[in-house]
Amino acid sequence: MPSLIKSTPSFLTSQKEGLAPALRNPFQVFISRIGVCVFAIVVLNSTVIAKEWRGIVPLKSTRSDVERKFGTPKKESSSNIYYNLAREIVVFDFQSEPCDRCGYGWNVPIGTVVGVAIIPKGTHHKDEYQLDEDSTVRDSAGGAGFVYYSDDTHGLSVETLNDLVTLVEYYPGASEQKQMCPKVERCIMDFFARFDEYQSLTFEDEKARLDNFVIQIKEMFGRGVIEVIGPSPEARRQRMKRAVRAKQYLVKKRGLEPERLLIVDGGSENSSLTRLCLYGIGGPATRIYVFSGKDPEPAVTTNRGRKRTGKSRRRVLSTKQRSL
After folding, report:
1. According to the model, what pLDDT value does residue 19 have?
2. Is residue 31 within 8 Å of residue 23, measured between CB atoms?
3. Quick check: 202 and 246 in contact, CB under 8 A?
4. What 3-state DSSP class applies to 94?
5. Which DSSP state fits 59?
6. How far is the CA of 264 from the CAs of 1, 88, 146, 184, 250, in angstroms?
């Protein structure tokens, strides 16, 4: 508080310096100073402060700050550092090259932290994270169960699958967008998440596909999704057992952290298949999109023995009701 009073505007400090006659009363001077302090507090509170994780702040911290705090990483590249900690898996994303003509990245020194992505271990819910009340909510697609809560003002995003947190990202806030690399020309960047898909395979043949899958997951510091697809809920339940077996193989035999592999119901298609998809932990290819097909409505047999869908049956009933 003394520092705020010290910086009080000069017209409140001395009558010789132009003190207004109306403020000669000491009580009025006291009230005026309170008003200035309240104004200063409001201004400070309205300043957007980027979210930080364990003292690491996007666009402020550096690679040296990260290594000083968490030690030498076991896995690293020019743009990422990977840590498998006791309570979470963390990937730090860095600016690794100067701005290009496409405007990707940030206009900051090489080695500056531009994002932090965390896969928490154990069971966690979104209420544990300091999301703003005005955070946007987006369903990734269909009925796969992914929901994204994004606080772009402060730079925080939480991904959930069936109400459990599967990824948390810290990134530059809205007030820092001016530090993005300038875009000189229009460029298109494509991301293809689908890595492989197959129908009926022996487990030995499937393991060969899974071996290639896990190699790519580890090399890109990423995570995987196994989509289970089939013409009916029962067909997908049967195939889900194979997906669980595949995950157990990758975790127990190939050393993949279980938190880095998700199994989802990919919805209805004419044939049953297993789809393997690759996604990043942080960065531009993080968000998971599963376009789940809806199961057809079950057929209903009418009094005349003909099969109709549930929607057709409702139309028949409404016609009878109108005739009555």
Report:
1. 37
2. no
3. no
4. strand
5. T
6. 54, 21, 9, 40, 16
Taken in order 160, 165, 167, 172, the sign of the CA dihedral is: positive
Place of tokens 């393997």: 276
* Contact between 167 and 84 (Cβ < 8 Å): no
CA pair distance 275, 196, nearest whole angstrom:
6
Mapped onto helix, strand or coil, the DSSP state of residue 98 is coil
d(CA 324, CA 267) in angstroms, rounded, equals 41
Model pLDDT, residue 186: 87
- What is the pLDDT, as a whole number, of residue 187? 85
Q: How many CA atoms lie less than 13 Å away from 290 in the CB half-sphere?
A: 30
Residues in Cβ contact with 95 at an 8 Å cutoff, skipping those fewer than 6 apart:
79, 105, 106, 108, 109, 110, 111, 112, 114
Nearest to 224 by CA among 240, 238, 210, 237: 210
β-strands 136-139, 113-120 pairing: unpaired
What pLDDT was estimated at residue 9? 37
Tell the burial category of 214 from Cβ atoms under 10 Å away from its Cβ (0-12, 13-18, 19+): buried
Tokens of 190: 């494509």
What pLDDT was estimated at residue 97? Answer: 93
Identify each DSSP E strand in 171-306 by its residue range: 194-198, 222-230, 261-268, 273-280, 299-301
How far does the chain reach from its first CA to its final CA, in angstroms?
81
| Residues listed for the chain | 324
Q: Which of 309, 89, 121 is nearest to 221 (CA)?
A: 89
d(CA 261, CA 255): 12
State both tokens at 133: 């009340």
Q: Which two tokens stand for residue 239?
A: 């195939």
Residues 16, 23: Cα–Cα separation, whole Å = 13
Average pLDDT per block of 10 residues along the chain, 324 residues long = 38 38 45 44 42 94 96 91 96 94 92 97 93 78 80 93 95 94 84 90 96 96 95 92 97 97 92 94 86 74 56 44 44
